[in-house]
Write a structure and sequence with these properties.
The chain has 2 domains: about 100 residues, NK-Lysin (Orthogonal Bundle), CATH 1.10.225; about 55 residues. Helix content is about 65%, strand content about 0%. The longest helix has 25 residues.
């Protein structure tokens, strides 16, 4: 009976490990995966994978080309991160198009292309600023100065605390910003 429990415990541990690893890779190559998903959703609705030349053409239509003076403009309305990705993909679009044409998932295709240019998987979308109204005052007071500075930086308010030298200065500013967020959202604290 104990051998059965040990085996089931081992299986549960392995499953938890697989879930943790898959979540770690979910944030990897997020900009590239979004661009590949956008291209395939817009251009390809079939179940079978497209041909490599077709995928290259779709990448050119999305990103644009830079060949001499006669280059074509890409899709309008791309974000800043997508533009940076297009700049990285342009010289190695075949490295991305080949795995996609073989039916490989976008994450794996981006990881393969990243072997030629690391910046492809290093691009990340900016995180939304933290919601201070969800934090308790006690939690803010217990935070380290580094964490308080990071919160101010994420909110774009780091310049408001130029003369801050004590932890209480940072805590007071974060509390004040918390009150402002609550007032803007119509919440009572």
């Amino acid at each position: 009976m104990s051998l059965l429990r040990m085996k089931s415990g081992l299986v549960v541990t392995c499953l938890l490990f697989v879930v943790a690893v898959s979540q770690a890779f979910a944030d990897e190559c997020e900009v590239c995966v979004k661009v590949v998903d956008d291209i395939l959703a817009e251009k390809h609705g079939k179940k079978s994978p497209p041909k490599m030349e077709q995928v290259e053409k779709w990448i050119d239509e999305y990103c644009g080309t830079v060949e001499g003076w006669g280059g074509k403009k890409g899709k309008k309305g791309k974000g800043e991160k997508e533009e940076k990705l297009c700049y990285s993909i342009s010289p190695i679009k075949r490295e991305l198009a080949r795995p996609v044409s073989l039916g490989m998932p976008p994450l794996k295709a981006c990881q393969r292309a990243a072997s030629k240019d690391e910046t492809i998987c290093e691009l990340k979308f900016p995180k939304p600023p933290p919601d201070l109204t969800e934090m308790k005052v006690e939690d803010i007071e217990k935070m380290r100065v580094r964490a308080l500075k990071d919160i101010l930086k994420e909110l774009g308010k780091a310049d408001k605390c130029k003369g801050c030298s004590e932890k209480t200065d940072f805590v007071d500013l974060v509390k004040k910003l918390r009150q402002e967020q609550a007032k803007a959202k119509g919440k009572e604290l």
